[in-house]
Amino acid sequence: MLVHVVIPFLLLTTAIKNVEPAYSFALEDNLRSSLGIGTTYNLFVRPLAQVNVTVALNIITLNSLSISDQSMSIAGYLTMFWDDQRLDWSQDATYNTNIPAIYSNEEYIWRPALIIENSVRDISIVSDANVLMKVQSSGSVIWTPSGIYITHCETDVTYYPFDTQSCDVIITTWGYTSIEIALYVSQEAVRLEYYKENGEWTYQGFSAFTTSNTREGSSTPEITFTLTFKRRPVFHVLNSLIPMVLLAFLSSMVFKLPPDSGERIGYSLTVLLAYAVYLTIISDNMPSTSSSTSVLTIYLLFV
């Protein structure tokens, strides 16, 4: 009888020993300690001699595209991927099953020092200590810092109000060279999952490519995201273009008046005054830039 009791007990004990420990606070705390996060992990040391960083741009909304200031303002966030083998626990049977990922921030884990090179408001390292980094068991790190990016945009108003503008967001390293960090464009370079349409501009598409730039005698990598927006012309056509065409038509109708009626001069002056008053009203809607001349401006001058 004793043998029948002891054998099941031994089998149960062996089965318990083979069961992986479930997730717990202590288990993750032990994992962080074994990885050295917050203690022996040195965030100033690169994971590799050359770290491959993949970048994607996520657009939430186009805040403004100013023709006179030649600037574009967008709200969004960057998605960065890189590998840090110091944070790899995929081969550790104690943790890899129950802890697929942990989270930290830039105060404890190395991150690439990147800037928005053509920013016109704030040129500083992309940083956000409140946004957590997701560290997967393979050592892959995913970081999504957000911000309002105000960049320089060379505008062309030749065909205003039917113009299309292409604006760049240029990302490059700061301090690190091409030898130390290599930048790559993500397979899905510009993401629009949360994009909200702008009332004045409609999104047309993008292009993205990587190049290198020489700064202080050293080559630095950079990624250029080119965003294309087309103006919605309905407002400008109804409030600017059509009234201007109608006033030009009325001005030519002075020759339909009989010469002996005596109303030609009064009619011409009335149309001219109406034209001048309307020009002052729509002047705020006209693009104020000298880098390119609008066909509409030439038309108004001709009339």
TrEMBL record:
PANTHER family with a match to the protein in the record: NEUROTRANSMITTER GATED ION CHANNEL (PTHR18945)
Keyword Transmembrane set for record: yes
Membrane-related topology note: Multi-pass membrane protein
Family matches, as Gene3D superfamilies: Neurotransmitter-gated ion-channel ligand-binding domain, Neurotransmitter-gated ion-channel transmembrane domain
Signal sequence interval, chain numbering: 1-21
Neurotransmitter-gated ion-channel ligand-binding domain ranges (all copies): 39-233
GO-annotated molecular function: extracellular ligand-gated monoatomic ion channel activity; transmembrane signaling receptor activity
CDD domains according to UniProt: LGIC_ECD_cation (cd18989), LGIC_TM_cation (cd19051)
Domain of life: Eukaryota
GO cellular component annotations of the record: membrane
Location relative to the cell: Membrane
Membrane-spanning parts: 234-253, 265-282
Domain Neurotransmitter-gated ion-channel transmembrane intervals: 241-303
Keyword annotations: Membrane, Signal, Transmembrane, Transmembrane helix
Name assigned to this protein: CHRNB1
